[in-house]
Amino acid sequence: MPEFDRNVLETLREPLEAGRITISRAALQADFPAACQLIAAMNPCPCGWRGDPGGRCRCTPEVAARYLRKLSGPLLDRIDIQLEIPALTAAELSARATVSGEATAPIAERVSAARERQLNRQGMTNRELGGRQVDELCRPDAAGEALLREAGERFGWSARAYYRVLKVARTIADLAGARMPSAAQIGEAIQYRRAFGSV
Ligand SMILES: [Zn+2]
After folding, report:
1. How many angstroms is it from 66 CA to the middle of ligand 1?
2. In the chain, how many domains are there?
3. CA–CA dist 10, 4 (Å, integer)
4. Strand residues in 26-144 grouped as ranges (E)
5. Which SUPFAM superfamilies does UniProt cross-reference here (predicted)?
6. Helix 104-122 crosses helix 159-176 at what angle (to 10 degrees)?
7. What spacing in Å lies between the alpha carbon of 55 and ligand 1's midpoint?
8. Cβ atoms within 10 A of the Cβ of 58, count?
9. Residue 190 · residue 151 · CB < 8 Å
């Protein structure tokens, strides 16, 4: 993702927030639907080896920091799930080949049931909920509220980030068939937004 120019990346903010994009050329302006699911990946530094225990990264800390800064705070704010995935060693890779995870079909069924639940309850997906609907449909209990407050202060979340975490928690609760997100489900949603917590 950081291989794109920063101003190109910034244009993603509008579709990610509004699900539409407005293009202005001279006297003409056109509005297009642009609701999308953005899936992006990046390396931790230009050479890709930062954090490698073998010490293969040759980037200075400044070069690595400049690379990460290509993604602005407001853009990261609009990306709901941000995960850091460490590279596996060759030994870990071959060990994993023998571990069988859950098959795709039952997962797909669970996702489609969760989506159905959202449409039945509110006529739209959780992503599209407005602030007032989030307050009503994603009410955390006291323990969940405390977790949110603590994470929000620690990571300096905007109101947007706060609401987006609640919507992710609402989706996790829907996957589990729960009426309201539990503190554990809020905690899970918070974990998904921590990769850039310190940037
Ligand atoms: Zn590097």
Report:
1. 12
2. 2
3. 10
4. 28-33
5. P-loop containing nucleoside triphosphate hydrolases
6. 120
7. 9
8. 11
9. yes
Q: Is 144 among the domain residues? A: yes
Give domain status of residue 87, yes or no.
no
Q: Provide the 3-class DSSP secondary structure of residue 32.
A: strand
- State mean pLDDT over 8-19: 92
Tens digits of per-residue pLDDT, 92-116?
888 876 667 889 999 999 999 999 9
CB 11 within 8 A of CB 24: no
* 84 Cα to the center of ligand 1, angstroms: 16
Residue-number span of the structural domain to which 33 is assigned: 6-79
Strand pairing of 28-33 and 20-25? antiparallel
Q: How far is the CA of 53 from the centre of ligand 1 (A)?
A: 12
123 in the same domain as 68? no
Which residue has tokens 């979340």?
157
In a domain, 94, yes or no: no
- 59 C-alpha to ligand 1 centroid (Å): 4
Predicted confidence at residue 90, as pLDDT, reads 82
Q: Computed from CA positions of residues 41, 42, 48, 54, in that sequence, does the dihedral angle turn out positive or negative? A: negative
Phi-psi region of 81 (alpha: psi -120 to 50; beta: other; left: phi over 0): beta
User: What's the whole-model pTM score?
Assistant: 0.85
CA distance 94 to 97: 5
51 neighbors 44 (Cβ within 8 angstroms):
yes
Q: What is the pLDDT of residue 173?
A: 97
Instruction: Give the three-state DSSP class for 199.
Output: coil
What are the two backbone dihedrals, phi and then psi, of residue 32, each rounded to the nearest 5 degrees? -120, 145
